[in-house]
Amino acid sequence: MAAREEITVCEDEVRSRYSHLEKMTDLVAVWEVALSDGVHKIEFEHGTTSGKRVVYVDGKEEIRKEWMFKLVGKETFTVGAAKTKATINIDAVSGFAYEYTLEINGKSLKKYMENRSKITNTWVLSLGGTDYRVVLEKDTMDVWCNGQKMETAGEFVEDGTETHFSVGNHSCCIKAVSSGKRKEGIIHTLIVDDREIPEAVE
């Protein structure tokens, strides 16, 4: 009798280990999207047997659909403080293989990030042991720091403009100066406590 009980325990162990494994294999795609308010992690679970679709943004469940008879299609949701539109496209490649692509504001992630690098500047710095990510949106001159839109004061100076704001008790300034070259346009430089911060590449 005891032997049979041991067997059932083993079966249960195997079953729970397997169901955990099954849960893990539904995760089919992970993307990291750099927006003005921070870098957001998008995870997508797709159960190709049940048709289950789950979208997580920064670890928080945004969409859950348990039984979908159509395995291909799209899921649309928003990301970040500015509620940026994101769409995951699910396409069948062959047989039971699927391809997952992420679009941000109607553009492929690659195109969106290329375009974004033209319209934003990003700086990553450490002040007093805290890491900060400062983003300038060149079209609106909005400044974001660690997910918060900053209060700024702009002024015209001899060779361009300066946008002043503060992070903690540190004075920050983004200088905008013409490069003198049409292709390069305006060069933006972040200065914190009279120290120039190199631009980050995302």
From TrEMBL:
Q: Which GO terms describe its biological process?
A: apoptotic process; negative regulation of extrinsic apoptotic signaling pathway via death domain receptors
**Pfam families, per this entry?**
FAIM1 (PF06905)
Keyword set, alphabetical order? Apoptosis, Cytoplasm
Places the protein is found: Cytoplasm
A single Gene Ontology CC term: cytoplasm
Transmembrane region(s) = none
Q: Does the keyword Cytoplasm apply?
A: yes
InterPro entries membership: FAIM1 (IPR010695), FAIM1_dom_sf (IPR038513)
**Which protein family is it in?**
Belongs to the FAIM1 family.
Functional description taken from the UniProt entry: Plays a role as an inducible effector molecule that mediates Fas resistance produced by surface Ig engagement in B cells.
This protein is called Fas apoptotic inhibitory molecule 1
| Organism listed in the record | Thalassarche chlororhynchos
